[in-house]
Automatic annotation (TrEMBL):
Domain Aldehyde dehydrogenase: 21-475
Native organism: Paractinoplanes bogorensis
UniProtKB keywords: NAD, Oxidoreductase
Origin: domain of life: Bacteria
Lineage: Bacteria, Bacillati, Actinomycetota, Actinomycetes, Micromonosporales
Xref: PANTHER family: MALONATE-SEMIALDEHYDE DEHYDROGENASE
Protein name: methylmalonate-semialdehyde dehydrogenase (CoA acylating)
PROSITE patterns noted in UniProt: ALDEHYDE_DEHYDR_CYS
Signal peptide as annotated in the record: none
Length: 495
């Protein structure tokens, strides 16, 4: 059995807790590896090594840090296919999708190569007579990332590229369901010349997470995962004096207005609902069909579904792979039954798809006439299930989104620029697409939702990432000529 270890001090480190977790290939149902689950003592040991490394790394010049980032970017680009194969073997998504995930993470490395520019402070000459004031950005020290199963490479890359470029040591606790990508990234960092201990991987479950959240030497925690855990991470981390950004779940709505280009809207709905088997935080899980577009739109989506090829992610023909675990597959299948029982119209039933073998496959499901009171509308299903809610008006569609618990992403499909502009003004969500179904911002903007999709105040990567992983210091300085000072107990004024 393959063993997935920790990575501490620039080398693979087998765990000592005596606890391991299983890792499966979702396309076959076979257990392929076991992953070490860290104890609190192992987390402490890793943090001590990272703390030492952080002291030195913050002294490395911006030029040196930028050089390491450039090299890391080159290695990642050259080894995209190897990393994609690892992602597919443990997550299940199709290889092209896995390579796409790496490509988006690569953009974060590219952004971070510009760290000399990004770390610039500001300078005010002559703030008072003979006095200059300037601000500098400094790293926090040891920072941690806790990441979900659905993007085992991209989400760690969102965090570690920015954190490391800013001069921090980064401790990653990846999902225990698909941890090998994290170890692959660790080897790339080492090859890129990153000093030992600046990038650490501790594998584990709640025990390791709790050790991170309460460790006095960890200054900040960046989290991505489901909403209940995000809330727990935010509350526990901040109660222990840490800076925390915790991104949670989603229920992303795509509004289709009557004037939308029907084929484009139907294609987008299918791509965004069923890509990666719906296991994307930016997946479209609800289409809000406004007015008389509903009937033709549901027909157009339904017509596309029989052609989708579902199978192992390693098969170049496959467009959609399995779900992450057998348990999750059963949970998603249960929602289809619930939707039917609640009165939704089951236009396509994913339970009827047949894929040979013991993989965790589920076909695509389309539910029409879904009402906001139904569980299939309220809950984040995180599977290949698309709900269609029919709305009479634009105002009704926007009210649905704004009343929803989540506010990650949303999209509008229309040919009316004025309506799109009004939507962008009205809607309560962190990321908006106009005729773009998955509006994941490019790396030089930042990624984050509103409401229960994000706890904390900074978004991830890009400018917000630099802000999150640095703290500012303001220096007030004067260089008086000898003999010009005097005793004055009054409050200093800026004259
Ligand atoms: P999850 O919340 O189950 O796990 C995320 C991380 O938290 C993992 O590292 C896991 O080990 C840890 N964890 C799980 N349970 C814990 C507990 N009780 N105590 C402490 N730590 C715990 O999420 P997941 O199933 O891996 O990922 C899917 C979820 O992530 C979905 O809800 C999805 O919407 C969300 N997600 C959000 C974004 C975003 O940007 N908002 C991006 C990707 C995924």
């Amino acid at each position: 059995m393959n063993r997935i270890t920790h990575w501490i001090g620039g080398a693979a480190r087998p765990g000592t807790s005596g606890r391991v977790g299983p890792v499966f290939n979702p396309a076959t149902g076979e257990q392929t590896s076991e992953v070490d689950l860290a104890s609190a003592a192992e987390v402490s040991e890793a943090v001590a090594v990272a703390r030492q490394a952080a002291q030195e790394w913050r002294s490395a010049s911006l030029a040196k840090r930028s050089t390491v980032l450039f090299k890391f970017r080159e290695l990642l680009a050259a080894q995209t296919q190897e990393l994609a194969a690892i992602i597919t073997s443990e997550h299940g998504k199709v290889l092209s999708d896995a390579a796409g995930e790496v490509a988006r993470g690569l953009e974060n490395a590219e952004f971070a190569t510009g760290i000399p520019h990004l770390m610039k402070g500001s300078f005010s000459e002559q703030a008072a007579t003979g006095v200059d004031v300037y601000s500098i950005k400094q790293p926090l020290g040891v920072v941690a990332g806790i990441t979900p199963f659905n993007f085992p490479a991209m989400v760690p890359l969102w965090m570690c590229t920015t954190a490391i470029a800013a001069g921090n040591a980064f401790v990653l606790k990846p999902s225990e369901k698909d941890p090998s990508s994290a170890l692959f990234l660790a080897r790339l960092w080492k090859e890129a010349g990153l000093p030992e201990g600046v990038f650490t991987v501790v594998n584990g479950d709640k025990e390791a997470v709790d050790a991170i959240l309460t460790h006095p030497d960890i200054a900040a925690v960046s989290f991505v995962g489901s909403t209940p855990i995000a809330k727990y991470i935010y509350e526990t981390g901040t109660a222990h004096g840490k800076r925390v950004q915790a991104l949670g779940g989603a229920k992303n709505h795509m509004v289709v207005l009557p004037d939308a280009e029907l084929d484009a809207a139907a294609d987008a709905a299918v791509n965004a609902a069923y890509g990666s088997a719906g296991e994307r935080c930016m997946a479209v899980s609800v289409v809000v069909a406004v007015g008389d577009v509903a009937g033709p739109l549901v027909d157009a989506i339904a017509a596309r579904l029989p052609k989708l090829k579902i199978g192992a992610g390693t098969d170049p023909e496959s467009q959609m792979g399995p779900l992450i675990t057998a348990q999750h597959r059963e949970k998603v299948a249960g929602y289809i039954a619930r939707g039917a029982a609640e009165g939704a119209t089951v236009v396509a039933d994913g339970r009827e798809a047949e894929v040979p073998g013991d993989g965790y496959f589920l076909g695509v499901t389309l539910l029409d006439n879904v009402k906001p009171s139904m569980d299939v509308y309220v809950d984040e299903i995180f599977g290949p299930v698309l709900a269609v809610v029919r709305a009479e008006t634009y105002a009704e569609a926007v009210a649905l989104i704004n009343d929803n618990e989540y506010g990650n992403g949303t999209a509008i499909f229309t040919r009316d620029g004025g309506a799109a502009r009004q939507f962008q003004f009205d809607v309560n969500a962190g990321m908006v697409g106009v005729n773009v179904p998955i509006p994941v911002p490019v790396a030089y903007y930042s990624f984050g939702g509103w409401k229960a999709s994000l706890f904390g105040d900074t978004h991830m990567y890009g400018p917000d990432g630099i802000h999150f992983f640095t703290r500012s210091k303001v220096v007030t300085s004067r260089w008086p000529d000898p003999g010009t000072s005097a005793i004055d107990l009054g409050f200093p004024t800026n004259r």
